[in-house]
Structure formats: structure tokens, C-alpha cells
């Protein structure tokens, strides 16, 4: 909330032209709860979401009695470790170097019961102009190759219409590889080059979002391997306090091919002390 | 998304006048992860959220080595059963009577691996005009008493400016009792009377939201005790397919005292087959 | 395993006279999974076990197809925080004072990914002579009062037949209060006095087990309030490396009224780095 | 408990000769909590155990204040889906064909809140003579090949000393392949042939245990592919009510090479309505 003045928000809302609302989220598909449990892009080795029903229609089919006068209810539980498993937003406490978080808060305040500094519950919500950088479309590709690093110059070729408070939405197309082969998806990931991160940081954005898993690229061991100076999380999240959103599903937005800014809304769950939150970002064209 | 045409969305966005963004969500405070684990309003006996850190600043203080060149990361997991424990939205599969869900889908499709009909992942997002019914303020009360049932006439006294696709936001003030005494919070809950539910249903709303736990009222056993014909979930969710959002935090919105509609946004997580989702609804004034 | 030489184990097995096997465990009853979710003794405010079925008979009643030729399977998941919620055994890493665990291991080795020193997986199993101290029966009571602290002299009155490697099983009867009133159960707990802990420690036992929640007593705030020198966990677990088992169900054993030692077996799950484990201890008379 | 008369138990205890206690359990290694998260044999695609610390030594290193006079405590939570992920015991409600569980109980009693018939909490404990069938050793192999099915004749060659109430412990050596290659482990599994299951069933055993994942063999898709008549779970668990324990670690027991029966103890957690339980079975030689 504090990211955005009322004027910036009103300007953002003015970007809508058709009122079409597009979800930028992958489904959350539970490891145990689905007939097709592993068909969603995710980083290898991460604990997948688990979704459990504590009462469901099957129970009534098996003879469970309704509540009171005849109500039937289905109820459930979700376990989710958002980083690397689903569309999510990073809190400012998610990554740092040395002893201090963004803005000098001591990293020792991030404890087993949660972060008392820079937790995801401090975000409130993001309502901003969204700018789509559809890099593979610009290059005539279906998706970027795994080792592709997006330079600042390439972003500028697409657009330099970035204002303070905007959200830059970076499409790599990499999630499309999943349907072909999870092993290909895990073979690395395209992402921003360090100079692109610095260029975005100069614009005082509210958020940088991407359909890849780490904003920057990943090597085949699923690690970012830039130096500390060039690490994308450190540039954006740690040095500049710019929130990150990762693992978005941008194909529907890309198909709509907006040639102008849109309204971007993300409302992370107010998980007290959380390092991030699963989100369902919305684009309003 | 299919709830709302582009025109309705554009009209909704036009309701914003100052650009102030207010979160309508309570914090999610974990049962195990907080120094103050039980200070959030919730229904008695429900499994509280649990929030775990899988790596945190304490680990680095204890000597864990950074990743690669010197990155430090905090990561976590959240377990949440949204109904009754935190701000959430109900899927259309959450409640029914007899053998069929809303729109005639067989209830037997709601199984342990999730609902293949009417799950929360089908919602996409809600972007609508929000209309605040601040019932206690209208009556000169801090909060409604536990046995108060809000009639249609009382809602109409506040406003009858409801259009198709709007979101009715019903404030009872009941969460304020929690700070005084959880036992008082658990002694019952005020909520809509059946005729109010029917009146709202007539307006073809996108969503009815409230700061109470069940839209309708609850008795001291924390149960709705209307007849099947008069049950608020059945009237709104089951018969009319109007989504419900419960356990909102409306005090900040009430303090802003909007005397006109605002933009209401809710983006439930796309939990495949889920009966609901925790949400962080936003009001944009 | 290293606790017990082969000779001690063979002596323990020789204690059996009738071959009757009695479980000393309470049921694990899930917070979400039971029609009667809160009827098991537990400490107030602790996260209760949660038990979820990922596929069950209800699903087949609702039309799920069998596997392959016609197999039907039920599968489930358990979430448990054993301390304070169910019958469990404490690892040596569970409690300490200052910077070091039992035996001087640095406490900083107990991290978010588990304890690399003194975790529960190092126990293996306990096969020992069990000696029942049925204190309320000795005093002609149904159960001890909440503020009762069991002295060394009182234990000695019951028996002083304790050998190295034995398991002392201390009955207070306190779980019987639960059926009358959870509030009474939560009003405090009887337990060992410090001098009783010291006397037991002198005997080089393998384990001290009790039906109370903390071996020592608890005040109405559910805290042990002895000084550091007199704290029962510190005396037994930390200073002497004697494992503890708590929240046993001893009523069936008490009804059998063994007037001689029996075989006591406990096999904690080999949870790597765990601070404890739920257990189902067995008495073989 | 009802499986075993006192006489049978006393006979079992008499099998011990050296008092050596050997754990037959793999460690439980959490998916999120370990520096080496996936190095334990498990079936592909199953949700791995998750182990979380809710307070640990790192928190104190980061400045968390001790409790009261100076106590420090570590506490944790375990989430486990035992089938296919760790050493566990199957309840009689785990598998069936048609509409009825073992002994004619309706399968519709196995619901989302647990099984009210044939749940794991009814087992109590198993204290029995254990008989090791070390099949690869008998054949001069390190481990059996993936497509090996152990016939009744082969078991009889090893020993026919089986009495009612005994536990047959079948070693395949298959877990040894894991260290070489998880893909090899997942390429199939050796196990009992149907006639071996029938021969064991004739002996009225208390339990059949194995180091493989399904008692019978598995094909490369990790499925049992016998007919319904020949399925090992149906023969043993469903038709004869003989409990099963799977994914044991038998290498330490095999190294001890017992040439005579031993004491076998397993004490499943009393998970109310559970389809199984993680266990730490003990062999007492």
C-alpha cells in the first residue's frame, strides 16, 4: 500500500480499456490430491503443494449424515511452500547477503516463528500499471532458450515506457517447455541479465514479475550463478526493495497481446512473517 | 472472469476516486509460528493456520553457510484450512443440500483429490463495484449484538444502489469482540436474515462479503440454525451461484467511511478442486 | 540401542510372566479428521494432530474407479507436533540451558532442517525392565491433585527396585480429569519433585515415562516453574541424558496392577534431526 | 494385541539369545528440512515426509529469549504420508476389492475423517517371533533383480519353521540399488509371488514384512500387476487379515545373519482411523 500513492493508483486504473480480466496464475495442483499430480511446472526437489479434503461429496455418498436440517459441506486444507512450486510473490525478507535485510533490518529477526521485519504481510496489495515485455514474441520465438539472458537493451527495444510504481512483466515462455518434458524445463531457465535488473531498478518499479522461477536465469543445477553484485534478487529485492513475483502464467496475457499498459493487481496473503505468498495476479486490460 | 463482462469491470474501475488501497484481510497468524498464536478471530475447534520456516535468519546466526557466492535465503511453508480460520472466499462446491451442487453438478464429483466441478480455481478473479453496508454505524453501535439478524429493510435503509456484478460488503463489527474476549466472540455471531439474502440475490451480485464467519448468523454452538429454505449459504451460494467471502477485516474500510461505491478486488488462489481459498481482498477508494 | 547392553535386554525380557501386551499410548485423534476432534488430553494452544485421507472408501462410493484389475486403496497423511499433543518421547536435543545440549554438543546445531546432534533418530529403540510407580493408587486416590509434587521418599515407599537401564513409569492419573473437564486438565498438572528426579537420575535409567505432560508438574499457565537447578527436564534429559516419555495412557496398565517389573518397549520413529517422536509404548507383562 | 495370546508372546520373547537390538527402519528424512532431501528410497511421485522446526537452536543464536528462568527448547512438526515413502505398517483398511474390507466391514466406513473399521489404531502392538528369509543371500546375490518373484518353494528352501503368530521378514536387498541410482530403484521391484503369499497365509502369521515397497513385486510403472486373485495385498491383508510392513531396512539385520528366530516388535502409532503408520520395527536377537 505504501508503495503506491493514490495518484499512481488512479493512473494505473486508467490504463484499462476493455475491462477484460486475465488471471496470471498457474493452478495449484496438490501432490496427493490430483489424479495427475506432477503436471505443473515447478523446480525439481521442492516440496509440492498438498491439498486435502477433510470432508467431501464422497463422504456423503458413503453415508455421512448432513449437518442439521440437511446441509452438506465440503472443506479442505492446503499446504504450500510457494517458492519454486507455484505462482508467488517474494517478501523483502526472502533474500539477502551478509547480516542485514533490505533497508538495514537485522537478518536475525527472521526466525522460526516468522520474520518480524520485511514479512509478506507488510505488502498489503499492489495495484499498478502493468507493462508486458514479451521477449520471445519480440524475437520471433515460441520461448527463449534455457541459457538466454535478457539484456537491458533488449527490454528497451520493446518499450521504455516505464514510470515509478509500474510493474514490469517479463515473459520468457519457458513454462511451455513443461508440457514437452519436465526434464527440459529443469535443464536451466532463461531470465534477466544483471544490466536489465539495474535498468528496471532505476525506474522505481513496484514489482518485477516473470514466468520464470527466479527473475534471473538458472543453470542446469537450478541455481542462479551470477556474482553477488549481479544477482537479480539482490539487485531488485535486497538493494532496491522492489518486490518480485515468479512463476506466473503469461500465455493467456500474451495471446491477448496488449499493445499498451494494463492494470496489474496482486494481493499476497497476509501471512504474518511470511517469506512470500502464493498469489493469483490479475491483469485488467 | 465469466462473472463479469468488460463493461461491468470498466464501470467498477470508474468507482475509484482517491486511489487509496485498503486491505480487507486479517493477518494469517500461525498456530505454531508466532509468539502470540491465538489472537486472531476464528471459530473454536477449527484447525488454525500453521506457518513453518524451512530456513531462516536464525540458521545463519547458528552458522549455516550461504548459498554459492554469499546469498542467504529464508523459505517457508503454510498450512491453512481457510473456512472458519481466516479471511477467505467460498467456492461454489463448498455447500449444498441433497445430491447436487449449484447448477446441478453432481456432488459426488467432490472427492478426496478435490472437486472436479465448481472448485475455487474456476473463479479467476473478482473486479467489481463494492458497496459497504456498515450496519452498526447506521444503527449507532460499535458492533451488532450476537443475536442480531440483518433484515432486507435495514439494508435498503442504508442503500439500494446495487447493480448486477456488484459486491455487497456487510459489516457487523463482530471481530471487535475478539480483543475483549474470545469467549464473547464464540458466543454467537450476528449476520444476514434470510430475507436480506433473498434481496441481495435478486440483484445478481458477483459476491457477498462479510466480516462475520458465515454470512448468516451463528448460534452459541457456532452453527447456522435456519431452515434449509432460509440458510444463507444455500440461498446465495447454492441456489444463485453467488460467491461468498467471510471473515474480512472491515474496520479500516469503515474508518475511511466511503459514502460511495469503491473498487473491490479479490483473487482467490487457483487451488485445483479447492472448496475455497484464503484471500486478501482489496478496496480501492 | 547403545543405551542397553545385550545382557540388560535379556534381563528385561525375562521380566515377562504372562505375555499380556498393553499399549501405553493415547489415540492420535486429528483436529480435522474426526467427528469428535478435541476429546483427547492435550496442552492448551498446541497445534493438534491433523489426519487427512488422500483417497478413501467415500471416493469409491462416489464413483472413483479402482486401480488396475479392481484394487481399491485408502491412503492418508498425518501432521503431528508431538510435544504436548500426544504420547511421545523427547530427544536429547529437546531442552537445554545456555549454549550446549547434553554432553556438550553445541545448541547451534539444532537448526531449521533438524538437529544434527542428539536427534531422536539416534535412539533406535528402548527394550528395558519397566517399573510402575502408581502413586495415586499407593495414596488411595483416583488421581493426584494438580499441585501435587511427588517426592523421592514417596517413590521409595512404592519400590526401590531400580537397576541401571530400567524404565521408571510414573502414574499420576491426571489424564482422567480430561473426561470430566478439559478446563480442569488445564488447571495445572501433578508431577515429580526435583528430589525425585535426582533420585531417579542416580539409578542410570534408560527412560523416565509419565502420564503427565512434562514429567515435572505444571502450574495453571501450563509452565514448569522450578528453578533451573530443579527443572525436571534439565535434571534428567540435559544433565544425565535420560530420555523422557510423556502423555502416556497408563490406566490399562494400572488396572492390570503389575506387582513386579514388566518389559517396556518404545521405538521412536527415526525422524532425522527430530526433537521427539510420537510413540506407542508397549508393556509386556 | 488380540492377534497374540500371552503364550505366543512368551514363546516369542524366548527367541532372544544375545539381547542385541537392531532397528529395522529407514530414517525419516524431510523433503524440506534436510541438506540432502531426496536420498532415501521411496516410490516416485509420492509426497515425501516434511519436517519443520517451530523453534530451534538457530532462533536462540538469533536472540530469542529463553523461557522463564533460562530454559531453551526445540520443537518440531512432522508431516508424513507413510505408504511408499518410509518404513510403515498397513492397516487392514488399506486395501480391498469390491465393497467390503477384511472381515466384511463395509468399505464405505473409510471416510475423510478416517476409517471407523479396521484402522491402524486397532493393532496395538506386535510382539512375535521373527523369521528372516534372506533371499538374495540364499541365492548368492547382493540383491534380487527387479523382475524376480519369490516362489513358495524358494521360501521353503530357506526355512519352513513358521508357527502361528510369527512374523515373516522377507529380504530382497532392493533398497541397496538406491545409492547407485534412484532411477534403478524406480525401474521395478522384486517381491513375493502369489504362491509364496498363499503359503505364508496358511501359517496364520501375525505380519509379513519386507524391505520392498509392496510385499509383491512392482513393474516399471511402480504398480503391482497380478490379477485380483494373485495380488499379494489382497491375499494377505484382505483375505486373511495378516498385517503388512513395508520398506524396512534389513541390511543391519542381514549383516548380523541370525540363523535362528528372533524377537520382532512393531508398535504402530494409534492414529485413529489411519490406513497405516510409520513404524520403527525392532529385532531383538
TrEMBL record, chains A, B, C, D:
One Pfam family in the UniProt entry: Cyclase
GO terms for MF: arylformamidase activity
A Gene Ontology BP annotation from the UniProt entry: L-tryptophan catabolic process to kynurenine
Gene3D superfamilies listed in its UniProt record: Putative cyclase
Name of this chain's protein: Cyclase
Amino acid at each position: 500500500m505504501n508503495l503506491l500513492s493514490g495518484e499512481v493508483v488512479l493512473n494505473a486504473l486508467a490504463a484499462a480499456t476493455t475491462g477484460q480480466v486475465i488471471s496470471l496464475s498457474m493452478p495449484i495442483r496438490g501432490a496427493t490430491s490430483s489424479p495427475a499430480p506432477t503436471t505443473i511446472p515447478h523446480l525439481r526437489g521442492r516440496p509440492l503443494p498438498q491439498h486435502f479434503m477433510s470432508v467431501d461429496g464422497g463422504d456423503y455418498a458413503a453415508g455421512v449424515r448432513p449437518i442439521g436440517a440437511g446441509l452438506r459441506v465440503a472443506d479442505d486444507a492446503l499446504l504450500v511452500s510457494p517458492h519454486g512450486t507455484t505462482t508467488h510473490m517474494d517478501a523483502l525478507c526472502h533474500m539477502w547477503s551478509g547480516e542485514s535485510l533490505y533497508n538495514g533490518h537485522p537478518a536475525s529477526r527472521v526466525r522460526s516463528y516468522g520474520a518480524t521485519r520485511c514479512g509478506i504481510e507488510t505488502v498489503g496489495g499492489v495495484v499498478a500499471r502493468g507493462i508486458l515485455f514479451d521477449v520471445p514474441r519480440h524475437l520471433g520465438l515460441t520461448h527463449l532458450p534455457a541459457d538466454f539472458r535478457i539484456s537491458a537493451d533488449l527490454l528497451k527495444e520493446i518499450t521504455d515506457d516505464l514510470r515509478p510504481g509500474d510493474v514490469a512483466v517479463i515473459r520468457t515462455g519457458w513454462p511451455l517447455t513443461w508440457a514437452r518434458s519436465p526434464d527440459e524445463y529443469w535443464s536451466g531457465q532463461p531470465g534477466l541479465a544483471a544490466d536489465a535488473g539495474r535498468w528496471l531498478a532505476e525506474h522505481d518499479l513496484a514489482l518485477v514479475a516473470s514466468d520464470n522461477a527466479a527473475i534471473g536465469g538458472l543453470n542446469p543445477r537450478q541455481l542462479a550463478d551470477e556474482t553477488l553484485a549481479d544477482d537479480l534478487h539482490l539487485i531488485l529485492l535486497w538493494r532496491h526493495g522492489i518486490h518480485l513475483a515468479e512463476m506466473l502464467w503469461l500465455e493467456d496475457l500474451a495471446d491477448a497481446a496488449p499493445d499498451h499498459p494494463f492494470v496489474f493487481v496482486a494481493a499476497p496473503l497476509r501471512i504474518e512473517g511470511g517469506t512470500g505468498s502464493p498469489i493469483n495476479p490479475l491483469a485488467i486490460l
